[in-house]
Amino acid sequence: MECVPNFSEGRDKAKIEKIADAFRGKEGVRLLDYSSDADHNRSVITVVGEPQALIKAVIDAIGRAVELIDLTQHKGQHPRMGAVDVVPFIPIKNMTMEEVIACSKEVAETTAEKYQLPVFLYEKSATAPYRENLASVRKGEFEGLTEKMRLQEWQADYGPSAPHPTAGAVAVGARMPLIAYNVNLGTDNQEIADAIARNVRHIGGGLRYCKAMGVTLHDRGITQVSMNLTDYTRTAIYQAHEMVRMEAQRYGVPVVGGEVIGLVPMAALVDAAAYYLGLENFSMQQVLETKLLE
After folding, report:
1. At 161, is the secondary structure helix, strand, or coil?
2. CB-side neighbour CA atoms (13 Å) of 119
3. Does domain 2-174 have CATH number 1.10.3720.10?
4. Which residues are catalytic?
5. How far apart are CA 88 and CA 188, in angstroms?
6. pTM, whole model, 2 decimals?
7. Tens digits of residue pLDDT in 65-120
8. How far is CA 3 from CA 29, 132, 243, 268, 271, in A?
9. Domain 179-293 grouped into CATH 3.40.50.10190
10. What is the DSSP letter of 203?
11. Pairing between strand 84-90 and 6-7?
């Protein structure tokens, strides 16, 4: 089983390391990757492991984040409602989605009891259709969470009826693999990035399995269309990249780079390579690493 928790800290390296340490040296758990972004002020950690070992490590990491991160002092480009903003579990090998959903609920219940942290279940674990979409659960962010949770339809699935004073709330759920892919634009105009994101994402009439938002990268003086591709087999990386490029042309803005956050399935990169190189009848079986793993 895989877990990709997102933490609302991307600038203080000491805090990020303390959180990542929750996954180091633990039997049955392997830390695969972690990356931070100062503009987003967010870190993404990718871990895999045996279910119970991974559950224990994730709960430990959540506790460290609750202790270390104060959202009343947090500023960043990425939407967030919690010190630990979202904790998705993904089936990898020899696990069904139903088993992963059960694991996510175990983490949610224990987290709420242990840290007095409100927990919302989302995606495949959601208790109602309107809670499946993370954007809906997170709408209003940390600053609007107190008012939102006064509404009956937005009571937490586990834990207190009001946000944690410094750690907010967390969304926990089960989902299929997701690719976080960003396209950098040669402009510092946030309005242009926002307009492109609106047209690219599914809710705006764009790509079916794409969520997108505009972000300013202050340190570089450029903007970015930050995307989540929720099913790369149906909305490919190259499709997202090319649609951003096409929309950017309307504003005379160049695409100056792409960025993958966290890990990405090899098949998604092979698909993009085959498109851009114009390869005919190419398959994963022609990738050397595929043969080595057989």
Report:
1. coil
2. 27
3. no
4. 78
5. 32
6. 0.82
7. 999 999 999 999 999 999 999 999 999 888 999 999 999 999 999 999 999 999 99
8. 10, 18, 29, 19, 24
9. no
10. G
11. antiparallel
